[in-house]
Automatic annotation (TrEMBL):
This is Transporter. The keyword NAD does not apply. Keywords: Membrane, Transmembrane, Transmembrane helix. The chain crosses the membrane at residues 6-25, 32-56, 68-88, 100-120, 126-143, 150-168, 188-208, 258-278, 284-303, 315-339, 428-449, 461-478. It comes from the Bacteria.
Length: 479
């Protein structure tokens, strides 16, 4: 091997290990990431002032890289709050409610609707958009409230969020860390996500039916009055925050029906345009985000009339508040892992790396290939484990940059399969931390269904573990 690993490589590897340990212990990793950035900045620049300046500049670099993702999610949340306030969300979902006539139809119907809406609106806003309408229907036909929560959870925070094929926030984070294109990661994730989705949802439904038949089912209902329909953590869409007026005086029932039909049509047109013009990544995100922003502007004027100018701003502020609360912990973590690829030479110059270096992660991967016999099985199991560990903080997004970085390392060592490993790590991280296993990440779906998030996590555990095992096995064969 021509390149000898230097102190900057070992320092980076040391802080990666520290971050993994802290995630496993369910501790916040922000200080560890900032310390890692400062230490690497000191080695790269050779001065204390360079390290301190590099710390700030790395955060700016991270924000610039994540800005489109934060912006699109913020605008989508702003739009969803406006739809909840006007009642248009109920009209949009009501036709689907008429098709639900049995517990099985309720479980799969709620799941598929939640997944479809989540692809465009993100899962937490989607819970608020559809839960209030479909939950009473599901309970009326005999589906337990916990079963409805499972369906919302697995299809929304599991399938839709881990694929994220429309908004593309998750694949952008992992693709950037792995040095790949967003489209490449999304393409590699399709077979893996199909396996994960099939195994997990079928297992969850089978376990539910078995336990109901055996009389061992516990619905996990919370005490009356202990939770509200849109209660939960800061990551929920709180309808009351936008609903400061008693009604939407500018919208008649007929107008609401027209708008409820136009909004899905506009997004359907966006999908057609993306396919016809082959828009992906930032271009696709811009199209969706621009459409959502126009909907917020026009609908605010229609709903609030003379106060529409001011109310549109308040909806956007609510959306940005949500976006930065969700991505606040992600920014320093992503800043650290960007140093493993493009950020280091950008911030500190090419001289920060040894001659012949292709980036810290690429160098470590090449060294691994020359020193350790790495197999596809070892790489796949490692990525699933790392992804699951990074999800333990309950975010799902905060650690996927680490998954992408390690996928790049193993892919370099193997000589191929970086895209498959990146997609595998992304799926594992988001299924564990995005809202299907960690109790504090389950609160949106649990609150709207009035069930215990801990009971929901317990119910999801076996199906999700089975899905991860099956998906890892499939990934081994794809490498």
């Amino acid at each position: 091997m021509d390149l000898t690993l230097g102190s900057i490589h070992w320092l980076y590897l040391f802080f990666v290990a520290v971050i993994i340990v802290m995630l496993a212990l369910r501790r916040d990793t922000t200080i560890a990431c900032l310390a890692g950035i400062g230490a690497i900045g000191f080695v790269a620049s050779g001065t204390l002032s360079g390290a301190v300046s590099g710390l700030f500049n790395s955060l700016i670099f991270s924000i610039k890289e994540l800005s489109s993702t934060i912006l699109i999610i913020s605008i989508i949340v702003a739009m969803s709050r406006l739809l909840v306030f006007t009642g248009i969300n109920e009209i949009m979902i009501r036709p689907f409610a008429r098709l639900i006539r049995s517990p099985a139809m309720a479980f799969w119907g709620i799941g598929l609707i939640m997944m479809t809406v989540s692809f465009f609106f993100w899962p937490s806003p989607a819970v608020a958009l559809i839960g209030a309408v479909l939950l009473p229907v599901a309970i009326r036909v005999g589906l337990p409230a916990l079963g409805a929560a499972m369906a919302m959870n697995l299809f929304g925070h599991g399938i839709a969020l881990s694929g994220d094929y429309v908004i593309q926030g998750a694949p952008k984070l992992t693709a950037d860390a792995a040095g790949l294109g967003v489209a490449q990661v999304m393409e590699a994730s399709v077979p893996l996500l199909l396996v994960m989705a099939t195994v997990t949802t079928v297992a969850a439904y089978w376990f539910m039916k078995r336990d109901i038949a055996n009389g061992t089912w516990r619905d996990g209902l919370v005490q009356p009055g202990s939770g509200s329909l849109f209660g939960g953590t800061d990551t929920t869409v709180d309808a009351s925050s936008a609903n400061t007026e008693p009604s939407a005086p500018g919208l008649s029932l007929g107008m609401k029906k027209i708008v409820a039909a136009l909004i899905p049509l506009l997004f359907a047109v966006d999908v057609v345009v993306m396919l016809s013009l082959k828009l992906q990544g930032g271009d696709a995100t811009a199209l969706i985000g621009g459409t959502a922003a126009l909907i917020v502007a026009v609908l605010s004027l229609l709903a609030h009339r003379s106060r529409g100018l001011e109310r549109s701003t308040s909806y956007l502020v609510d959306g940005f508040t949500f976006g930065f609360k969700v991505f606040g912990p992600v920014i320093p973590i992503a800043a650290f892992f960007y140093l493993g690829d493009s950020a280091l030479p950008t911030l500190f110059g090419e001289a920060a790396l040894p001659a012949g270096s292709h980036g810290i992660v690429n160098d470590l991967g090449a060294a691994l290939a020359h020193s350790v016999p790495v197999s596809g099985a070892v790489a796949a199991v490692t990525l699933t484990t790392v992804g699951a560990i990074t999800g333990l903080d309950g975010s799902g997004f905060s650690g996927i940059s680490l998954a992408g970085s390690i996928a790049n390392l193993f892919g370099t060592a193997l000589g191929n399969g970086t895209d498959v490993l990146t997609a595998l790590g992304q799926i594992a991280a988001i299924w564990v931390g995005g809202g299907t296993l960690i109790p504090w990440a389950l609160i949106p779906a649990a609150a709207i269904c009035g069930v215990s998030p801990f009971e929901l996590a317990r119910r999801n555990l076996k199906p999700v573990v089975l899905g991860l095992v099956a998906t890892t096995v499939v990934a081994i064969f794809l490498l």
